[in-house]
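sry for the spam today, last one i promise. C-alpha cells for design, 681 residues
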C-alpha cells in the first residue's frame, strides 16, 4: 500500500473508531460487535507501526498508552477549580436555599441542575481547535498535575470533538472514576497475583491516574463524566481574538448537553429540576439507586441552573455560592479506642488523636480519628479501651460519634492531657476562651518548626522552587535548619550530600532560595505564619501600614482599624511579635530579604477611589490583567460580577450576559476607548 493510500485508510479507520466510541460511551448505543472494533484497532496499530510519521495526537491508538514519564509536571488552571461545600440534612439544604434567595433579594423559584456526586477525581480537559491537548488534576485549585498521557487512555474521552461547532479553546471539567465492575476485576487480578488490592474504586482511580507508565493506566478501564465548562477562549491565530460567548448556553444543564453533543460523556442520571422543592425527591431516588448504579457515589450535587444567577451569587474562598453537595448519611461502625496520641501542629496546637482498632467503614479501613480537644473528650465522656461508634463524616473524615457506655470495660482509663509538649518538652498553656492546649516552644519546637518552614516556603507564601514538604522534614531532622531564616544559609554542599539529593536538585533548591529573597510585603507577612493571618489579611496589613516596621509596632487598637482584622487576629499579631524567639527569626529574615516599597498616593492621585468596575468581553487595545492593574492603580475596585453596587461596566467585543445585566440594573456602560480615556485623564 502506498503512503498516499495509507493516509486515506488511516483517516477512514480513525473516523470509524471515533464514531464507534461515541456510540458506545456517550450515546450508550453500541453499533458493532467488539470483534469488529478490535479488528479495526489492530489494523490501525499495524499501519501506524509501518508509517509512524502518520500517527497523530488524536489517533485512537493513543489510548493504549505511551512511553513512561519520569515525573508529572505542573499545570496552572486559567480559571480556579473550586471544590464544593456540603449539606447533610433537609434543614441544611433549606438554609442553603435561603442564603441564595437572600443574596439574590428574591423569593422567586429557580431551576436546579441535579447530579449524582461521583466518588472519583476532578480533572480538567483542554481542547484546542477540537483536539485534546492536556488534562490536569484539580490540585490545590490553582495548580494541578499534568496527567495528559494517562487521561488520553480513557476510552470514553474523545481525542477529537464531534462536529465543528466549538470554541478554539474549550476546557471541560469532570470526574474520572473507576466503574464498580472494573474495580472488582482489578482487585481479583491483584488477589491472584498475591498483591494487595485497592480499598475502594476512588483509591483505584487515583492510583491509576498517578501511574507514570500510561500503559498501566490504559489497562485500568477508567471512565469519565463531564460536569461543567471551565475556560473558553480564542486561539492566538484567531484574527478577531474574540470568544463567541453566544456559543455557551445560559443554562448549566444545557451546557452539559452542549458538551455531550461534542462527544463527551454526561452522567445519564443528571436532571433539570423546575425548582428547589424537587430536590428531596431526586435525592431520595438516587439514594435508593445507589447500590444498583454502575459507579460509586457519595451523595448528590445541586447547582443553580441559570448562569447569570451563578455569576451574581459568585464564590466564597474555594467554593461557589451557587452549588452544594448534598451528602448521603455517613456509614457507621463499632470499634475499640486502644490509645490516644498527642500531635503538635504549626501553631503549637496539641491535638489528641484516637488510635482505633482497625475497622472497615465506608469503603476504607479506619485506624485513627481526631478527638479535637479536651472539651470534645469531655463531651463524649470517652476513655481508653471504650467501645465507640465511628463514622466517616461525609463518607470521608473519620469521626468518633459517641461511646457505648454499657460496654465500658473494667480496664478503661481516663485520657490525660500532657503537662508538657510531647515533642520538645516545653510548657503547655490553654489561653483564656480557647479549647486548645498549645506548646510554648514556638520555632524551638521541632514539630512546629517543620510546619512553620513548610508554610514559609509554600506556594502562596514565598513559593520556594525545589523545596517540598519531605525535603523540609529531612533538613530539620538532619539539623541543617531550625528556622525559616536558616534556609537562606544553606549551601549547595550542605544539600548535595543529603540522601536522594544530587547536584541538579541542590542547584534548583539554592536557585529557588535566591529567587525567594525578593518578594512582596504582603507575601512576607503571610509567610511568617501568624495565627489566622491569611493571604487577604496579610495584604490588607501591608497596604494599610505600608512598612513592616509599622506592622511590628502596631497596637491591638491600631491593628483593628485594618479591614478584616478583629480583636482575636489583632491579639495574635501582637503576641507573635512579643515573643523573643519570633523577633530573632524575623530580624534575621529582614536582613536577608527585600520587597519593593509601597508607594503612598494621596486622594488626588486616586481619581477612581471607591468606584467598582467590571470588565467583560474581549479588549483589543490591552489585556484584561493590564486593564485591571491600570484601574486599581487609580484606586478602583475591579469585581468579577455585576451588582447594584457596580459603578461601571467596561464592555469589550462580544460582551455577553454581564452587559445585559448591567443594562437591566442601570449600571453605566463604557467602551474600551472610554475606559482608556478615563485611565489617561
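last one done:
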Amino acid at each position: 500500500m502506498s503512503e498516499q493510500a495509507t493516509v486515506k485508510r488511516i483517516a477512514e479507520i480513525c473516523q470509524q473508531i471515533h464514531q464507534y466510541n461515541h456510540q458506545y460511551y456517550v450515546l450508550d448505543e453500541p453499533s458493532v460487535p467488539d470483534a469488529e472494533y478490535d479488528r479495526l484497532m489492530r489494523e490501525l496499530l499495524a499501519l501506524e507501526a509501518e508509517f509512524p510519521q502518520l500517527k497523530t495526537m488524536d489517533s485512537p491508538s493513543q489510548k493504549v498508552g505511551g512511553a513512561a514519564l519520569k515525573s508529572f509536571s505542573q499545570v496552572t488552571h486559567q480559571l480556579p477549580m473550586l471544590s464544593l461545600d456540603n449539606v447533610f440534612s433537609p434543614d441544611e439544604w433549606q438554609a442553603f436555599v435561603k442564603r441564595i434567595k437572600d443574596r439574590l433579594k428574591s423569593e422567586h423559584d429557580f431551576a436546579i441542575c441535579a447530579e449524582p456526586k461521583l466518588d472519583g477525581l476532578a480533572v480538567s480537559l483542554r481542547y484546542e481547535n477540537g483536539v485534546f491537548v492536556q488534562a490536569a488534576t484539580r490540585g490545590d485549585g490553582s495548580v494541578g498535575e499534568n496527567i495528559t498521557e494517562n487521561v488520553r487512555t480513557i476510552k470514553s474521552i474523545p481525542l477529537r470533538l464531534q462536529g465543528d461547532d466549538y470554541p478554539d479553546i474549550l476546557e471541560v471539567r469532570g470526574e474520572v472514576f473507576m466503574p464498580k465492575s472494573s474495580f472488582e476485576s482489578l482487585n481479583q487480578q491483584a488477589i491472584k497475583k498475591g498483591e494487595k488490592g485497592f480499598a475502594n474504586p476512588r483509591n483505584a482511580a487515583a492510583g491509576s491516574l498517578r501511574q507514570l507508565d500510561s500503559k498501566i493506566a490504559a489497562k485500568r478501564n477508567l471512565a469519565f463524566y463531564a460536569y461543567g465548562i471551565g475556560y473558553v477562549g480564542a486561539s492566538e491565530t484567531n484574527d478577531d481574538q474574540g470568544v463567541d460567548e453566544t456559543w455557551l448556553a445560559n443554562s448549566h444543564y444545557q451546557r452539559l448537553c452542549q458538551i455531550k453533543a461534542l462527544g463527551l460523556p454526561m452522567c445519564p442520571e443528571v436532571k433539570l429540576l423546575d425548582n428547589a422543592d424537587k430536590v428531596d425527591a431526586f435525592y431520595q431516588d438516587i439514594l435508593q439507586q445507589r447500590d444498583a448504579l454502575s459507579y460509586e457515589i457519595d451523595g448528590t450535587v445541586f447547582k443553580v441552573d441559570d448562569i447569570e444567577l451563578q455569576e451574581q451569587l459568585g464564590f466564597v474562598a474555594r467554593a461557589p455560592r451557587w452549588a452544594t453537595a448534598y451528602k448521603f448519611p455517613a456509614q457507621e461502625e463499632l470499634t475499640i479506642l486502644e490509645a490516644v496520641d498527642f500531635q503538635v501542629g504549626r501553631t503549637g496546637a496539641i491535638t489528641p488523636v484516637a488510635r482505633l482498632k482497625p475497622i472497615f467503614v465506608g469503603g476504607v479501613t479506619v485506624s485513627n480519628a481526631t478527638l479535637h480537644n479536651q472539651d470534645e473528650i469531655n463531651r463524649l465522656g470517652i476513655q481508653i479501651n471504650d467501645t465507640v461508634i465511628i463514622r466517616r463524616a461525609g463518607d470521608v473524615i473519620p469521626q468518633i460519634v459517641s461511646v457505648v457506655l454499657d460496654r465500658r470495660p473494667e480496664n478503661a482509663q481516663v485520657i490525660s492531657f500532657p503537662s508538657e509538649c510531647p515533642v520538645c518538652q516545653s510548657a503547655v498553656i490553654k489561653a483564656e476562651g480557647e479549647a486548645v492546649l498549645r506548646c510554648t516552644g514556638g520555632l524551638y519546637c521541632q514539630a512546629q518548626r517543620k510546619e512553620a518552614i513548610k508554610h514559609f516556603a509554600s506556594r502562596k507564601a514565598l513559593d520556594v522552587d525545589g523545596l517540598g514538604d519531605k525535603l523540609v522534614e529531612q533538613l530539620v531532622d538532619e539539623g541543617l535548619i531550625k528556622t525559616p531564616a536558616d534556609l537562606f544559609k544553606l549551601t549547595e554542599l550542605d544539600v548535595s550530600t543529603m540522601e536522594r539529593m544530587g547536584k541538579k536538585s541542590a542547584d534548583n533548591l539554592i536557585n529557588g532560595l535566591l529567587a525567594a529573597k525578593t518578594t512582596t510585603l504582603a507575601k512576607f507577612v503571610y509567610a511568617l505564619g501568624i495565627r489566622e493571618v491569611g493571604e487577604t489579611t496579610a495584604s490588607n496589613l501591608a497596604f494599610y501600614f505600608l512598612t513592616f516596621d509599622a506592622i511590628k509596632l502596631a497596637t491591638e487598637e491600631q491593628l483593628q482599624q485594618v479591614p478584616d482584622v478583629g480583636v482575636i487576629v489583632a491579639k495574635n499579631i501582637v503576641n507573635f511579635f512579643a515573643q523573643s524567639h519570633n523577633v530573632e527569626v524575623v530580624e534575621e529574615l529582614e536582613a536577608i530579604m527585600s520587597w519593593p516599597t509601597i508607594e503612598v498616593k494621596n486622594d488626588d492621585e486616586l481619581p477612581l477611589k471607591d468606584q467598582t468596575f467590571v470588565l467583560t468581553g474581549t479588549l483589543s487595545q490591552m489585556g484584561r490583567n493590564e486593564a485591571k492593574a491600570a484601574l486599581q492603580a487609580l484606586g478602583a475596585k475591579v469585581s468579577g460580577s455585576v451588582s447594584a453596587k457596580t459603578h461601571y461596566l467596561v464592555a469589550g467585543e462580544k460582551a455577553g450576559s454581564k452587559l445585559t445585566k448591567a443594562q437591566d440594573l442601570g449600571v453605566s456602560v463604557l467602551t474600551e476607548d472610554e475606559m482608556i480615556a478615563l485611565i489617561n485623564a
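The longest strand covers residues 332-344. ok im logging off now
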